[in-house]
Amino acid sequence: MFKNKKIIIFDMDGTLIDSIGIWNKVDMELISRLSPVTDISEEMVQMQRDSLLRQYSSAEFPYIEYCRALGERYASSLNSDEIHTLRYDIAQDFLRNEIDYKKDAELFLRELKGQGYLLVIASTTRKKNMDIYRFQNGNLMKKAPIDDVFSAVYTREDAQEIKPHPEIYLRVLKELCSVPEECLVFEDSLIGIEASKAAGLETVAIYDRYSDPDREQINRLADHQIRDYAEALMLLHNRE
After folding, report:
1. What is the mean pLDDT of residues 86-110?
2. Is 14:50 a contact under the CB 8 Å cutoff?
């Protein structure tokens, strides 16, 4: 899968970092503050978020719309901006101190970099969250600082529409003067893989348990499936 590739593009949440479960915890805490009597499972929180973000993917501010929908669903007196601010406040400690690379991800990144591949992040993570990962998260900074490893970082603010729309990937292709055949994408989720495939990019699905509900569709759509970054390293070493 590395044959003739020059640019390796990574999604962030759930792909490079173990964060989907963290965001589930954040949203469970958020919902408990919006409606203290609500009892909702982590699985339901994730399904609800995925569904609403897909619904609002073409909105100017999808996460504001997501927060507005939560406010309506849980009969909160807060407006969408207030809920969005509250969500970000809840997330701060998680983003700084709990988020970490997936096992062996930093080894894979350093090996790719050492072999001369151009590494890029294409994520719907907001820039302010990415800046926490870049400058304040000790786990990531100690293992593989983002600015040392990646030549370009694209965030939510770099595309009008979020995944599964392919805009973020099309922008990467345009700005790096590349052709799809030279690029390889790593994604964990169905909506991410839908976005990369819609841009005509060969895509690797890296396993994340939070994407299990969509596993059949993921495996059907992705060009390759890997269990973890140890397997990715093995494939890289054996590519000849």
Report:
1. 94
2. no
Banded model confidence at residue 30, pLDDT cuts 50, 70, 90: very high
Structural contact between residues 98 and 107, judged by C-beta atoms closer than 8 angstroms: no
Dihedral sign computed on CA atoms, order 78, 79, 82, 85: positive
Q: Which of 21, 16, 46 is nearest to 31 (CA)?
A: 46
Quote the CA–CA distance of 9 and 183 in Å, as a whole number: 7
pTM for the whole thing?
0.84
Q: Exposed, middle or buried: residue 84 (CB in 10 Å: 0-12, 13-18, 19+)?
A: buried
pLDDT in tens, 140-157: 999 999 999 999 999 999
pLDDT, tens only, 208-227: 999 999 999 999 999 999 99
Which residue is listed with tokens 């969509």?
Answer: 214
Contact of 105 with 16, CB cutoff 8 Å: yes
